[in-house]
Amino acid sequence: MKKTILLTTAISFCLLLITPAAAQPGGGKTTDAANKPATKPATTTKPATTTTTKPKTNPRTPSGPVASLSGKWWTSGNDFGASEVIFVQTGSEVTGEIHYTDGRTGTVTGTMSGHRLQHTWKNSAGETGSGWLELSWNNFLGGAWHNARVKDGSWTLMRIEGKWCFGGSADRIRTVTHNAQGNVLSVAEDGTRMDGRLEGPWLYLTNDDGMTIKGEMDFRSNRMNWSSGFFWKWCGR
């Protein structure tokens, strides 16, 4: 009888141990998915972009080597006074003689840096001044000047004396000279001569028949457009 009781007790105890184990799910812990940290989506870092700013350029400034100022220039109508200037350039140093149409004379000295001439001048009337002239084109100079009397003066010059090709043709060259009073002489390739005069930026020529034609420079001073419909193109000195 005792053996039977002991056996029954042992079986009951084993059943108590087996029952909790059977309650566990067969797929593992139910908290695995819930507690798993979320995966952050991969982010793509865009490479930094740089913007290159193009330097501003002056549309009236020529490219390439700077032309020499040496030679004769004509003031093209401004408050400096009608005159011709004969420049001599040695390296960056520039000197010049000023011959006004009213008989005054003067001198100018300066230093060329890039396309700009910083200068001072004086004349026979006791006037002095300083300023700058920009070589905007090979045949055009322009800039500002001032002195004790004038605070915002302007000075523009053109290169007139030299060779001009009629209609742009190198076979039809007009050789032009002028003096301080603005008197002009044009000699064609066949020796034909025409007299004229300079008045500010305009050139007037008179032929043998007494007909006068008016020439006007373009803004670069390398082309003369005539009232007759023809044009001259600068060919050099």
How does this model look, in words?
The protein is mainly beta and 237 residues long. Among the domains are: 71-158, Calycin beta-barrel core domain (Lipocalin, Beta Barrel), CATH 2.40.128; 162-236, Beta Barrel (Lipocalin), CATH 2.40.128. The chain has 2 helices and 16 strands. It has helices at residues 2-22, 32-35, and strands spanning 71-75, 83-90, 93-100, 105-113, 116-123, 128-137, 140-146, 153-158, 162-166, 173-178, 183-187, 193-199, 202-206, 212-217, 223-226, 231-236. The protein has an 8-stranded antiparallel beta barrel with strand order 1-2-3-4-5-6-7-8. The protein has an 8-stranded antiparallel barrel with strand order 9-10-11-12-13-14-15-16. The chain starts with a helix and ends with a strand. 22% of the residues are buried.
Summary?
It contains two helices and 16 strands. It has 237 residues and is mainly β.
Outline the secondary-structure elements.
Layout: H1 2-22, H2 32-35, E1 71-75, E2 83-90, E3 93-100, E4 105-113, E5 116-123, E6 128-137, E7 140-146, E8 153-158, E9 162-166, E10 173-178, E11 183-187, E12 193-199, E13 202-206, E14 212-217, E15 223-226, E16 231-236
Describe the structure using short key phrases.
single chain, 237 residues, Lipocalin, 8-stranded antiparallel barrel, 8-stranded antiparallel beta barrel, 2 helices, 16 strands, globular
